[in-house]
Amino acid sequence: MSEANRMAIFYGLIIIILSLIQAFVTSYSKRGYVLGVRFAEGVEKDEKVRKIVKDYKILTILIGFSLAIFVMILSYLVENLFLLNSVYILSIFLSYIPLVLANKKLKILSKNQKLDKRKFVSLDYSKAKIFNKKEFFGLYLGLLLIVIIFAVKIHLDYENYPAKLIMHMNSRGEVDRMAAKSYLSVQSPTIVSFFMLAVMFISNLSQLLSKMRISPDMPEESLDRLLETRRIWTYYFATSSILLIVLFQVGISSFIKTGDDLIVKVLGIITVGFSIGGSLLIGRFRSVDGSALNKTGKYGYEEEDDKWILGGLIYYNPDDPAMFVEKRVGVGSTMNFANTWVKLLFAIVLILPFVLGFFLMIFE
Question: Phi and psi (nearest 5°) for 80?
Fold first, then answer.
């Protein structure tokens, strides 16, 4: 079995797992919505709505398995890893087609329904602590300190590293990439840890700063539930960060030094398992705003469905000053792409890889 075949099998399994998770996304999405479309209470049980959701699940799973099989067959026809990686990435995007189609159908059904248009803000909204700033920033400063401590430990152990560092092994356990020993190469796991911690920090912060959804029937309780749920998500992000730090600065550092990948495999399974399983469990029993607890009654009006495009995955509302909003489909938060600051940030993200590539080319 070739390297391409092994990689294709791995990609195929990932595609199948993602399609199964995506098929049942309604079970851990924001309460009050069906695949990103807002319905009046009880309407989500309508026969037409249920049929659209059922068809969506079947189509999502069928496409997922079909794409997985296609990727594996392709690996036997073409021994090109770049092409295989490109098809895999394309498959991830194609798996969202059923969501876009179902979302469009549900929007048509929801046009004539009568919804509660009350916008409600708690009297204590301006006084309520969106999050404990000292606790939050103290937590991430502590995580940053852990990264630095591991970096110092790696630095002190520099002399014990071999002249050539193992950077990669293929699926057969054969070393296929080496790097000369240097302070930069030895500390490469630390650099990745800093980057991953920054990603977790920004993701967590964006969720905490996302627009609140308050119930007009039970405002104070819904506010308490929301803040409590955001605190739980913060603990989730912090725990994921610790696992990633240990994976890279203990597991990967040991691997590039000795070539033994057992620690990496064990830590990798634990990290991925917690990241996926933890988010699904919190989403299932809490959602992003505590609405899954089913103790907050009806919810106030947020924004029109047509402001959410591509199956409710992208939010674009020029009239909304909010920079971050909680996702309607799935868990986590997203940005308002109509916001000027978001547009600037998105442009920087697109340009940054080219800038880094340019400087690396000059450096080389």
Answer: -130, 105
What are the phi and psi torsion angles at 271 (to 5°)? -65, -50
Phi, psi (deg, nearest 5) at residue 64: -60, -50
pTM of the predicted structure, to 2 decimals: 0.84
Which residues neighbour 265 within 8 Å (Cβ) at sequence distance 6 or greater?
none
- Would 195 be classed as within a structural domain? yes
CA dihedral 196, 199, 205, 206 (to 10 degrees): -160
Is 318:49 a contact under the CB 8 Å cutoff? no
* 98 in any annotated domain: no
Could you tell me if 303 and 317 are in contact, meaning their C-beta atoms sit under 8 angstroms apart?
Answer: yes
Q: Report helix, strand or coil for 333.
A: strand
With beta carbons less than 8 A apart as the criterion, state whether 251 and 150 touch. Answer: no
Residue entry with tokens 């992003």 = 288
Q: Measured between alpha carbons, how far is 316 from 361 in angstroms, rounded to an integer?
A: 37
Write the pLDDT tens digit of every residue in 288-334: 888 888 665 566 667 778 888 888 888 999 888 888 888 888 888 88
The residue assigned the tokens 């998770």 is 21
Supply the range of the domain harboring residue 254.
129-296
Q: Report the C-alpha gap between 251 and 240 in whole angstroms.
A: 15
